[in-house]
């Protein structure tokens, strides 16, 4: 009995020392978008995006405006990793969008892409959007045509009364020398009726020729500043008024921590040109973990690695290898020359987990008119750019291709991108219909008055014409009767 008890106790102790893995919690993320529902035509508005995630290792947030608003931004979510290799965290960022001059509807679109560990590396993504509207240009109210002043009808000249024919003088009784019979006085000729004098037509006043609008002068491109050292940049950030500082730093690609801190505290931006690429750093996209960085080396090389090419079946056009390893202080936007590609070509950015052998789609990018591509990252590792979709990759980016095709088709037809019903847009449509309904009765009244005026003029003109013709006929009959007598 004692021996059996000892064996049972030993089994309990052994079982307690075994590390039983805990079940992995399902990944999740919540998105909050705050900002106005309306953006003015040609104006701008800012929106704040907050993201909380759990059960993940990394998360990247991409924000863009579509339809009648334009703009883009991205930021990362700081994740606190627990014993399972996953963790939770939150982050926030902002986007400033510009309203189109033609007005219409649009949306703020947020896409969250996360990675997590569950036996191997897997991906999780979710998205949200907020509908916004840009007021349509006001419809000009047409000016009603002026009511013409009726031309006065001239008074007809009265027909003169015919001179009566004198009675013939009686022949006197014959005398020894008869007197000759006097010659009858000739009948006077009737005076002709005068023709109405035509009313002269008013000469139209000349219209002023509009003066041409002056052609606006193009905005000059800012000239980059060339500091000797990164410490010389700090006072430039403090004195910055335009919110963005353009720098040219050559091969000085190691940025110290105090520069990142100055950008985060001020919320300002820098655009830096290096020898072979450029970066953009937005202080509002930096995280709260700056104390863990001394300096960040942003150096980038693009030599191809055979093993990495094999993992993407040789579809890599470019490989991206960073001097920095691991997480960055925040989202950093890189711009590189896409050699061998032409403007308008589409490339796909993929993140490669070399140890796990997993490829994950990050972003779809388009070569600009100068032959460059721009992409955003918040974690330095192995990346490739391909010229076709990798079908067996996690988040293979084919859906982004479909969305881009739909947007291009709608924009080519000048149609706004459909979004969820917006209360602001519905109110605007109601106000336009109300305005039209109020204008319609007044436009109808003007048309009726104008029609009645024309009808009255026609009746008066017809009556005067009949009177004139009747008087002419009467004047002709009178001389004929006298001649018969």
Salient structural properties:
eight-stranded mixed β-sheet, 6 helices, elongated
Report on the structure:
Helix content is 24%, strand content 35%. The chain is built from 6 helices and 19 strands. The strands form 4 sheets. Strands 10, 12, 13, 15, 16, 17, 18 and 19 form an 8-stranded mixed sheet that branches. The longest helix is centred in the C-terminal third of the chain and has 62 residues, at 423-484. The N and C termini lie far apart (174 Å). The model is unreliable at 15-21, 178-185, 417-447 and 481-485 (pLDDT under 50).
Layout of strands and helices, then pairs:
Layout: H1 2-17, E1 28-34, E2 44-56, E3 58-67, E4 69-70, E5 72-76, E6 78-81, E7 87-99, E8 104-118, E9 120-134, H2 233-238, E10 244-250, E11 254-256, H3 257-266, E12 269-274, E13 278-286, E14 295-297, E15 300-301, H4 306-311, E16 316-337, E17 346-353, E18 358-366, E19 372-386, H5 398-412, H6 423-484
Parallel strand pairs: 10-12
Antiparallel strand pairs: 1-2, 2-7, 3-5, 3-8, 4-7, 6-7, 8-9, 11-14, 12-13, 13-16, 15-16, 16-19, 17-18, 17-19
What's the short version?
With 485 residues, the chain is α+β, with helices and mostly antiparallel strands. Helices cover 24% and strands 35% of the residues.
């Amino acid at each position: 009995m004692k021996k059996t008890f000892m064996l049972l106790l030993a089994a309990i102790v052994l079982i307690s020392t075994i590390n039983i893995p805990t079940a992995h919690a399902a990944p999740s993320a919540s998105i909050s978008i705050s900002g106005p529902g309306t953006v003015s035509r040609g104006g701008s508005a800012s929106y704040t995006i907050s993201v909380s995630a759990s059960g993940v290792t990394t998360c990247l947030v991409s924000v863009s405006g579509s339809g009648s608003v334009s703009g883009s931004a991205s930021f990362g979510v700081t994740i606190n990793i627990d014993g399972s290799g996953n963790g939770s965290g939150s982050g926030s960022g902002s986007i400033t969008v510009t309203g189109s001059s033609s007005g219409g509807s649009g949306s703020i679109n947020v896409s969250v892409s996360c990675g997590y560990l569950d036996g191997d590396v897997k991906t999780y993504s979710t998205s949200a959007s907020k509908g916004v509207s840009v007021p349509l240009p006001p419809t000009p109210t047409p000016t009603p045509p002026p009511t013409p002043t009726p031309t006065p009808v001239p008074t007809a000249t009265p027909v003169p009364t015919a001179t009566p024919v004198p009675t013939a003088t009686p022949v006197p009784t014959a005398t020894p020398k008869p007197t000759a019979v006097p010659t009858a006085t000739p009948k006077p000729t009737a005076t002709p009726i005068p023709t109405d004098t035509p009313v002269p037509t008013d000469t139209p006043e000349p219209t002023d020729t509009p003066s041409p609008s002056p052609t606006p002068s193009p905005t000059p491109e800012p000239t980059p500043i060339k500091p000797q050292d990164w410490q010389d940049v700090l006072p430039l950030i403090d004195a910055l008024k335009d919110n963005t500082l353009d720098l040219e730093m050559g091969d000085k690609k190691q940025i110290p921590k105090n520069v990142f801190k100055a950008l985060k505290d001020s919320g300002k931006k820098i655009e830096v040109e290096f020898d072979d690429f450029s970066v953009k750093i937005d202080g509002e996209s930096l995280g709260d973990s700056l104390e863990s960085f001394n300096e960040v080396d942003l150096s980038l090389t693009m030599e191809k690695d055979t093993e990495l090419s094999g993992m993407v079946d040789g579809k890599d056009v470019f490989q991206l290898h960073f001097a920095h390893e691991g997480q960055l202080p925040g989202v950093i936007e890189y711009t590189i020359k896409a050699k061998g590609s032409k403007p308008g070509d589409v490339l796909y950015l993929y993140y490669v987990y070399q140890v796990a052998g997993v490829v994950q789609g990050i972003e779809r990018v388009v070569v600009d008119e100068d032959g460059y591509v721009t992409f955003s990252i918040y974690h330095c590792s192995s990346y490739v750019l391909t010229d076709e979709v990798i079908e067996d990759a996690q988040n293979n980016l084919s859906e982004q291709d479909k969305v881009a095709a739909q947007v291009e088709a709608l924009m080519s037809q000048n149609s706004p991108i459909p979004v969820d019903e917006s209360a602001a847009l519905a109110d605007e449509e109601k106000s336009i219909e109300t305005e039209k309904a109020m204008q319609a009765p007044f436009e109808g009244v003007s048309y009726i008055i104008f029609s009645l005026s024309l009808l009255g003029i026609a009746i008066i003109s017809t009556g005067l014409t009949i009177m004139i013709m009747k008087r002419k006929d009467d004047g002709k009959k009178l001389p004929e009767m006298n001649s018969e007598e």
